[in-house]
Each structure stands twice: as structure tokens, then as C-alpha cells.
Amino acid sequence: MSQKKKIHPKIKSRLHPRSKHRERYDFIKLIESYPDLAPFVKPNMYNDDSVDFSNPEAVKTLNKALLKLHYGINNWDIPKNYLWPPIPGRADYIHHIADLLGGSNFGKMPTGATVKCLDIGVGASCIYPIIGVIEYGWSFIGTDIDPISIASSNKIIDENPVLKDLIELRLQSTPKDIFFGIITKDDRIDISICNPPFHVSLEAAHAGTLRKLNNLNTKKTAKPILNFGGQNAELWCDGGERKFVLNMIRQSKKFADSCFWFSTLISKQSNLKSVYEALENMDAVDVKTIPMGQGNKTSRIVAWTFLTSEQQKTWKQTKWQTVKK
Questions:
Q1: If both were cysteines, with which of 115, 141, 284, 290 could 304 make a disulfide (CB 3.0 to 4.6 Å apart)?
Q2: Could you give the maximum distance between any two Cα atoms of the chain, in Å?
């Protein structure tokens, strides 16, 4: 039995001001853009048009519609059981790092293909590069330890001319390495981004998925079907988010001169203390924490640089072609 229609705020105020997703999903426009979405759109318990977010096919089809309507991506798909990203949250990361680069460039956001972003764990969806290319014209290096993910993202690039020549994918053949074997001596990367594996084990990943599904459904389930998909390497690693990020920080020091800003999502607030301590031990010159929020979920981006003020000034003048005032 449906409940009384729920009153929703017109704007999702926790999303970034430049986000294309601050208003509620316009299913009429989404279906016009991508008719295959129509069978999945039905009134929910509040009589609002929605999709069943516990249905993997519905979530993937919604993503296809969002990418076509808002980003002009006509051909997008991923292999079965790979991670289907919640696009509004991914877009927020890109917008926030654009602000970060702008804050390092006298308030003017660097745009265009001369801005190089490194996406650690590009996945099968190629989602961060898609949004960065469309919104800011940046170029990307995407890395992954999974050949199937690399092949899937390459297919997306090949089938969407707007992405051609702006995204290069590199397979990381040594899973314990993050930057080694990826960043070359000639690379000058403006920012690296990462959505690290969250869970410490497969069992923890399944338990987290069950919690998510049971929050989405009135009927409880004991079967961990991933509504957003996900392979093992996408969802968990030994030591979880904390260990992955601490390893990233240690390795980043070796590439201090090759990248202006390093950054990563941190989902668990309890991990921040160790992250800050590691950055202090590595003598990071500047560390910034950028809060993010979507719905009831709160996370943050932690960004750091090893470049001195003089090195930063040179980088801006040579790499971002800053107009002198």
C-alpha cells in the first residue's frame, strides 16, 4: 500500500553547486533521452516516480540515461557484475577537485586538455574520466589492475568520439603498486584521484551490501546481490581503505615532482587520524580536506602536495598558462 506523497526539497543542497544532479531525477527527460529506461520507472511507496535501486538492471539503465542526457554519452555499458557507479557522487568529486585546482591558480579553474588527471582504479565504467572530459575538457590517464576493466573502459572510449584522444588507459601489472609502473618520467599530472576499496574482506563487502539492500527494501534479504555490482578489487582489499590509502601516501612521496595534487576519497572518518599522521610523516607541504555529502551519506576528499611554494608557482606559470596579473 502506497504512503502519502513525500515532500522533497527542490535542490539537493549537499551536492556541489555546479552539479547537473542537484534537482530530483527528471524521469520524463531521462526517458525521452533514453527510452529503454521507461519499463523500470514506476511509482515508489511515496507515489514518486523512481526506479528500484535494488534491481541491478534498473540501476545500470538509469546510469545509461543519465550519461546520455547530461553528458552526451551515447554508448556506455559494463560487463556483468562490475561496479555501476552512483553518478552524482562521482560528479561531485570532479567538481570539488576543479575547485581545488582553481584555488591553486588564483581562483581560475584550469580547463582544457593540458590539464592531466590520473584516475587510480578507473574501473570498467570509465566514469571519472567521462565527467572530467565533458565538464572541463581535461585529459586523463586511467589505471586498473584488472584487464577486463581496462578493456571495458577502452570500448567506451572507442564508441564515444567525444572521449577520443583525451583518455589513455594503463594496466597496473603489480597490484601492490599504485604509482610505480604507471607514472613515467615525462608525466606531469595536475591531480590524481582515487575511490579506494572500502572493505577489509569479501565477507565485510557482502555484509555491507546486505545492509544497503535491506535499507532499500521493505522485504529483508539474506542474499548479497550487489545493486551497484563490483568485483573483489573494486570493493575490498587487505586492510581496507585505511591500508590502501596509507600505501598510496607512502608511494606518492616518490613522485612528489610529477604530480601537483594527490587526492583520494575517505569514506570512514575514523581513518582520517592515520591519514593525517602519514602525511605529516611524509612531510607533505599542504593538506586539504574537502567535505562531500549525498543523501544521508557523508564522506570527504583528502588532498596533499609535496611541491614547495616556488615549485607551485613555476607549475602554474608553465603548465596552466596562468595570465599574469
A1: 284
A2: 65
Q: What is the mean pLDDT of each run of 10 residues along the chain (325 residues)?
A: 56 89 94 98 88 90 97 95 88 98 94 97 96 98 96 98 97 95 97 81 44 49 47 55 95 98 95 97 98 84 98 94 48
Here the cell at position 306 is: 609535496
Partners of 26 in the beta sheet? none
Q: How far apart are CA 189 and CA 148, in angstroms?
A: 25
pTM: 0.87
Cβ-contact 106, 193 below 8 angstroms? no
- The three-state secondary structure class of 177 is coil
If you compute the radius of gyration of the chain from its CA atoms, what whole number of angstroms results? 20
Which residues, other chains included, contact 314 with Cβ-Cβ below 8 Å and sequence gap of 6+? none
Query: What are the φ and ψ backbone dihedral angles of 174, each rounded to 5 degrees?
Result: -115, 100
Residue with cell 546486505: 210
Tell the CATH topology of 79-319: Rossmann fold (3.40.50)
